[in-house]
């Protein structure tokens, strides 16, 4: 398969590969990673065709563009040699096309004069069409990749632009310009990446059981899915304000996505009103009817972090504090049984196993204490909750100072992929675990560690 | 709350989830509202096999809406035949940097032909007919869930959890 160069955004590195793999799966495109490095914004993919390359990247959030790879080298001599050897077959096709050259220097800077010299060094290519800066037939980019602090690039590429990515959506959906948000709203970029990894697409039905201000619903609807949300906190569904009401609906109106917003309702995942696949009852061995679930469950951590850690204007902080206080008030939310972090994860996975169609995805955010992750791979794997009917697809990590959060993505397995022994073992384990009267806070390992870690001497 | 949503919901009480009496929840004192929405033909096609048709018929009857046929329409009845589909140049399929509105629009038409009246009728029943105010009553335990301003509340009082 021919090779293509993806110009990635150098951010959220551990999400980039998962996003590309998901987009390939969504479009049914064979993909092979010939070069990928977390420290580089350049990735070389083998793909079936230029059309497939363009389809792959056009809704990517963490890519900028994709290019047909014409040449690569470690310095200009090897780049030019590679250009002669590998891409001269392309040249006659563009002999009379309008064209332009651009230089993209990553972690390096070039004066205008040097840029000119570099571009002129390609004048041996028989391109006789006119130079056109906007929308030329042929857009060639010279990419330079500098190691930090270096004066000479460590890698060079020449590529023909095939398609820009969908990264513009990051700006379109920026929370700063969104009417209805809260302190726990996922930023637009990561919500959109989540929707890509979860394979949101036209014709599909997506659900967020902890929908809050609806960030994942907006992201799913952007990619064409019809979306549903529920939340245990009725206020987040009802919204706020009188005449100029701010709610999930008003956000959907703002983005022109109302016809893909199905409904929001007030519900608790542990006593969910959602029915099983065929009428009442639940059966994890059968496929369900949701195409995807995206969620950022309320672990009670981010709220604490925001209140303790964020310094904005005092008025806003007071308001946020008041909001958190009200969460704590007895009787504000109907009384619940003690509910641990682990029990919540178990419930989410069980719900996904029952409700997802075969091949449907659960993309779930989960916080982790960094200390835990440092104890080595094995422990890290152990702390990822699993279910016999769900296969782990990808783990992406967003590191913070004292904790990280991970985007865990699972695929609903087909019945012949599910071990009946594992399924029945899980059921009996669950009965035991719930029968021995363990205190919820004992189980809630992450929260305990997290809040202990946060207690620093007050100054 | 759309009738489509109601078709996927049952009583939230664990004791009721396994009984057929709890599904569908029966609307009481329901005030309906028609909320227009753009047609999403591909979504209708995909969701139709997941809809419990008998429950939908019951709901329409309860709400005094026109009676639905005894069986769900076949997928072939949703789109008019599309005999001569001029092949689209492959490079026209990709719209770089596409923004939200219209993402994937028309995919249903491109492959399937124009939406039929049957599809439009389904769209109207499932996605445009909504319950604005009222109650949803479980046929097993009798618990009534309130719908206010189109939002249903399924939280259970503590003695029912
Ligand atoms: Zn009931």
CATH topology of chain B: N-terminal domain of TfIIb
Cα separation of the termini of chain A: 61 Å
Query: What is the CATH class of chain B?
Result: Mainly Beta
What is the residue-averaged pLDDT of chain B? 85
Beta fraction of chain B: 15-25%
Point out poorly predicted stretches of chain B: 88-109
Bin the strand percentage of chain A. Answer: 15-25%
From the alpha-carbon coordinates, what is the Rg of chain B to the nearest angstrom?
19 Å
The number of E-state strands of chain B comes to: 4
SSE order of chain B, as H and E? HHEHHHHEEE
Q: CATH superfamily assignment of the largest domain in chain A?
A: Vaccinia Virus protein VP39
Oligomer: heterodimer
- Hey, which two chains have the biggest interface? A-B, 62 and 60 residues
Radius of gyration of chain A: 25 Å
Pairing-aware structural class of the strands and helices of chain A? alpha/beta
Total domains of chain A:
2
Protein name (chain A): RNA methylase family protein
GO biological process, one term (chain A): tRNA processing
GO molecular function (chain A): tRNA (guanine(10)-N2)-methyltransferase activity; tRNA binding
Keywords (chain A): Cytoplasm, Methyltransferase, RNA-binding, S-adenosyl-L-methionine, Transferase, tRNA processing, tRNA-binding
Keywords:
heterodimer; A: 459 residues; alpha/beta; VC0802-like; Rossmann fold; 2 domains; seven-stranded mixed β-sheet; 24% strand; elongated; B: 161 residues; alpha+beta; N-terminal domain of TfIIb; four-stranded antiparallel β-sheet; 27% helix; binds zinc ion
3D architecture notes:
- The complex is a heterodimer of chains A (459) and B (161).
- Chain A is of the alpha/beta class and 459 residues long.
- Chain A is 34% helix and 24% strand.
- Chain A folds into two domains: 3-164, VC0802-like (2-Layer Sandwich); 170-451, Vaccinia Virus protein VP39 (Rossmann fold, 3-Layer(aba) Sandwich), CATH 3.40.50.150.
- In chain A, the strands form two sheets. Chain A has a seven-stranded mixed beta sheet. A seven-stranded mixed beta sheet of chain A has the order 10-9-8-11-12-14-13.
- In chain A, helix 1 (13-27) crosses helix 2 (50-57), helix 6 (188-197) packs across helix 7 (215-222) and helix 10 (302-309) packs antiparallel against helix 11 (314-328).
- Chain A starts with a strand and ends in a 5-residue tail after the last helix.
- Chain B is 27% helix and 16% strand.
- Chain B contains six helices and four strands.
- In chain B, strands 1-2-3-4 form a four-stranded antiparallel beta sheet.
- Chain B is elongated.
- Zinc ion (ZN) binds at residues 11, 13, 16, 22, 138, 140-141, 143 of chain B.
């Amino acid at each position: 398969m021919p090779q293509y160069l993806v110009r990635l955004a150098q951010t959220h590195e551990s999400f980039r590969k998962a996003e590309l793999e998901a987009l390939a799966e969504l479009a049914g495109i064979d993909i092979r990673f010939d070069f990928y490095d977390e420290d580089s914004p350049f990735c070389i993919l083998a793909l079936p065709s230029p059309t497939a390359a363009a389809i792959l990247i056009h809704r990517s959030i963490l890519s900028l563009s994709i290019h047909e790879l014409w040449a690569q080298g470690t310095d200009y001599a090897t780049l030019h040699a590679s250009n002669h050897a590998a891409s001269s077959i392309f040249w006659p096709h563009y002999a009379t096309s309008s064209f332009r050259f651009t230089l993209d220097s990553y972690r390096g800077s070039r004066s205008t004069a040097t840029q000119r010299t570099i571009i002129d060094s390609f004048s041996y290519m028989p391109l006789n069409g006119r130079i056109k800066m906007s929308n030329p037939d042929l857009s060639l980019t010279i990419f330079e990749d500098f190691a930090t602090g270096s004066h000479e690039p460590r890698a060079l590429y020449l590529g023909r632009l095939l398609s820009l990515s969908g990264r513009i959506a990051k700006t379109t959906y920026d929370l700063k310009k969104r009417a209805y948000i809260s302190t726990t709203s996922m930023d637009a970029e990561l919500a959109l990446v989540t929707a890509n990894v979860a394979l949101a697409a036209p014709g599909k039905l997506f659900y967020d059981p902890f929908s809050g201000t609806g960030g994942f619903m907006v992201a799913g609807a952007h990619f064409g899915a019809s979306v549903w949300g529920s939340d245990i906190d009725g206020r987040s569904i009802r919204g706020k304000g009188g005449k100029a009401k701010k709610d999930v609906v008003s956000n959907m109106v703002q983005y022109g996505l109302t016809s893909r917003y199905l409904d929001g309702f007030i519900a608790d995942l542990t006593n969910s009103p959602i029915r099983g696949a065929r009428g009442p009852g639940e059966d994890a061995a059968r496929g369900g009817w949701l195409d995807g679930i995206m969620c950022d469950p309320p672990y009670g951590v981010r709220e604490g972090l925001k209140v303790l850690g964020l310094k904005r204007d005092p008025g806003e902080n007071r308001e946020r504090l008041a909001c958190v206080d009200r969460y704590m008030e007895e009787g504000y939310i109907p009384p619940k049984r003690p509910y641990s972090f682990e029990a919540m994860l178990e419930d989410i996975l069980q719900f996904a196993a029952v409700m997802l169609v075969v091949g449907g995805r659960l993309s779930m955010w989960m916080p982790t204490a960094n200390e835990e992750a440092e104890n080595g791979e094995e422990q890290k794997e152990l702390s990822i909750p699993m279910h016999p009917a769900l296969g782990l697809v990808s783990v992406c990590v967003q590191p913070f100072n004292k904790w990280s959060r991970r985007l865990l993505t699972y695929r609903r397995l087909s019945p012949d992929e599910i071990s009946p022994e594992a399924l029945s073992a899980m059921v009996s384990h669950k009965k035991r675990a719930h029968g021995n009267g363990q205190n919820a806070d004992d189980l809630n390992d992450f929260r305990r560690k997290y809040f202990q870690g946060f207690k620093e001497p007050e100054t | 709350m759309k009738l489509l949503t109601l078709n996927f919901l049952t009583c939230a009480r664990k004791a009721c989830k396994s009984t057929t009496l709890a599904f569908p929840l029966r609307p009481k004192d329901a005030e309906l509202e028609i909320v227009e929405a753009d047609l999403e033909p591909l979504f209708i096609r995909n969701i139709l096999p997941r809809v419990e048709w008998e429950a939908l018929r019951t709901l329409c009857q309860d709400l005094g809406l026109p009676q639905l046929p005894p069986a769900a329409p076949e997928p072939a009845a949703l789109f008019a035949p599309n005999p001569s589909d001029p092949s689209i140049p492959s490079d026209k399929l990709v719209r770089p940097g596409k923004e939200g509105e219209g993402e994937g629009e028309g995919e249903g038409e491109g492959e399937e032909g124009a939406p039929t009246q049957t599809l439009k009728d389904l769209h109207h029943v499932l996605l445009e007919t909504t319950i604005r105010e009222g109650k949803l009553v479980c046929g097993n335990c009798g618990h009534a869930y309130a719908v206010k301003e189109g939002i249903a509340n399924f939280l259970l009082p503590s003695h029912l959890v």
